[in-house]
Amino acid sequence: MTLLRLEEVTRTVELVEGPSLTILSGVNLAVSVGDRVSIVGRSGSGKSTLLNLLGLLDKPTTGAMFFDDKPVKSFSASARDRARGRDIGFIFQQFNLLQGRTALENVMTPLLYAEGRQFWQRSKIAREMLERVGLGNRAQALPDKLSGGEQQRVAIARSLVRGPRLILADEPTGALDLETGASVMHLLDEVATASGAALVTITHDPAIAELSSTHYRLDHGVLTPVVSHLEAVPA
Ligand SMILES: Nc1ncnc2c1ncn2[C@@H]1O[C@H](COP(=O)(O)OP(=O)(O)OP(=O)(O)O)[C@@H](O)[C@H]1O
Ligand SMILES: [Mg+2]
Questions:
Q1: What is the DSSP letter of 202?
Q2: 43 lines ligand 1 (CB under 6 A)
Q3: What is the domain partition of the chain in residue ranges?
Q4: pLDDT digits (tens, 9 = 90+) for 176-219
Q5: Would you list the DSSP string of 30-82?
Q6: Most CB atoms within 10 A, among 84, 101, 172, 217?
Q7: pLDDT beneath 70, residues of the chain
Q8: Which residues form the ABC transporter domain (predicted)?
């Protein structure tokens, strides 16, 4: 099933001086349940702008976007917020954990906006999620007492704790060494698979991109599919 579909999407911004700036143009992309998509591109090519659109944090200037086959344009602001909270998890390069809050409190945060069991059992659910990322014994640790790799594992637990169907990762390994980055990505893939979520990863690192099954390049706001060298080799 197609979770998210973009048709001829553009994003332009009006600049105070001079003509408007086109950040994305003619973007076509479909993401289905269980997909592993990577997007590579130079700094300034529009990757984060695209991810903000995919995460319903921003709207296309022109073109159409569908979430669960429903036009995003027709969503009210609160319907968009609800869909984002329930179905989308974000992971950022700089982890973006709440400082001064424990690992457990960080993972619990998204559950404060949930309903029913997810809300009432938030502490238990968050603890189980921390255990799944191998940090059950660091539940009371503050972010500044954790290593970069551990902080990113907390961020992964937080992004997955409501069982999203789409995980959006913007340079998730950008602040980690190669080995830690690779182990964090494998963990992310594993927990995404366990919860049946699609994963879209933005990265500069070809080795991280190779972990995906569908590859795209973004060049000056134009998205093009890439056939992986590995896939091109006959069996
Ligand atoms: N609100 C805005 N107003 C003006 N320019 C913007 C705005 N948002 C993004 N841009 C510009 O659009 C281009 C793409 O930005 P974006 O953050 O999407 O790049 P990126 O590919 O994520 O880069 P990086 O790899 O450095 O994170 C940049 O030139 C940026 O300066
Ligand atoms: Mg960026």
A1: E
A2: yes
A3: 34-59+84-232
A4: 888 888 888 998 998 888 888 999 999 988 888 988 999 999 99
A5: EEETT-EEEEEE-TTSSHHHHHHHHTTSS--SEEEEEETTEEGGG--HHHHHH
A6: 172
A7: 228-235
A8: 4-235
Is ligand 1 within 6 A of the CB of residue 27? no
Looking at the CA of residue 51, tell me the nearest atom of ligand 1: 18
Relative to the CA of 50, which ligand 1 atom is closest? 18
DSSP string, 67-136: ETTEEGGG--HHHHHHHHHHHEEEEETT--PPTTS-HHHHHHGGGGG--HHHHHTHHHHHHHHHHHTT-G
Class of CATH domain 34-59+84-232: alpha beta
And the tokens for 108?
């619990």
b/e string for 75-102 if b means 16 or more Cβ within 10 A?
Answer: beeeeeeebbebbbbbbbbebebeeeeb
Distance 153 CA to ligand 2 centre (A): 20
d(CA 92, CA 173): 9
The pair of structure tokens assigned to 72 is 């995003």
**127: which 2 tokens?**
């603890």
The SS3 call for residue 180 is: helix
Report the separation in Å between the CA atom of 221 and the middle of ligand 1, taken as the mean of its atom positions: 10
CB 11 near ligand 1, within 6 Å: no
Binding site membership of 46 for ligand 1 (Cβ less than 6 Å): yes
Locate 137 and state its tokens. Answer: 């014994």
